[in-house]
Amino acid sequence: MATTADMRSGLIIKVDGSLYTVIEFGQNKTARAAAKVWAKLKGVDNTRTIEVTWNSGETIFPVRVEKKPYQYLYKDDTGYSFMDTETFEQITVPETMVDAPKFLKDGQEVTVAINGETDQPMAVELPDKIVLMVTYSEPGMKGDTATKTLKPATVETGATVNVPLFVNEGEMIRVNTKTGEYVERVK
User: Fold this and answer.
1) Which domain range does residue 119 map to?
2) Which are the contacts of 61, defined by CB distance < 8 A and separation ≥ 6?
3) Could you give the CA distance from residue 184 to residue 42 in angstroms, rounded to a whole number?
């Protein structure tokens, strides 16, 4: 059994029969009362976000999670299909389980978090940064690089990313999948 001392960001725990991931946590100490541990939790199997407070040293129930590499195959009416790169087994997950579906491209490597108790997929995580080609962008004006002005650009997955004025069609850019922001141009 784990206690509140084992709390960390990213830990998946069971609270009232549902699974939640720890977004942030902290400890409140007062002079007269025992310390309390609080955590902001985001639902894994639901869309709720809650805050929970425990007494310091209280028991929590973490869930064993396995992370495996999968390859993105395609999207259809049933959801997004992925293939295990070791066993070639395929799974289909709903869009709500994918952290940034607008940046998925065919054949891309992703990490799938699988519940160790039920062997069911819980979440699909893209790499933090990926390289995409700009398929459409308005041309930038020559010499207009002194300001940090951004323009919208469409990338090969169909997503729109704000890029600096010097980025043109056909160029490769690196995008942060967590924030959806332009990082750098790739040569």
Assistant:
1) 65-125
2) 1, 2, 13, 14, 15
3) 31
Cα angle 79, 44, 108; round to 5: 45
Length of the chain equals 187
């973490």: which residue's tokens? 62
pTM (two decimals) = 0.75
Residues 6+ apart with CB under 8 A from 93: 79, 80, 82, 112, 121, 124
Low-confidence ranges of the chain (pLDDT < 70): 141-146
Please identify, among 60, 81, 99, the residue that sits at the C-terminal boundary of a domain: 60
Rounded CA separation 81/101 (Å): 12
The answer to whether 22 and 7 have CB atoms below 8 angstroms apart is: yes
Residue listed under structure tokens 């004025």: 165
Angle at 55 between CA 49 and CA 61, to 5 degrees: 60
The total of other beta-carbon atoms located within 10 Å of residue 38's CB is 15
Q: What is the CATH number of the domain that holds 73?
A: 2.40.50.140
What pLDDT does 118 receive?
87
The strand pairing partners of 136, in sequence order, are: 154
Residue 72 shares a structural domain with residue 109: yes
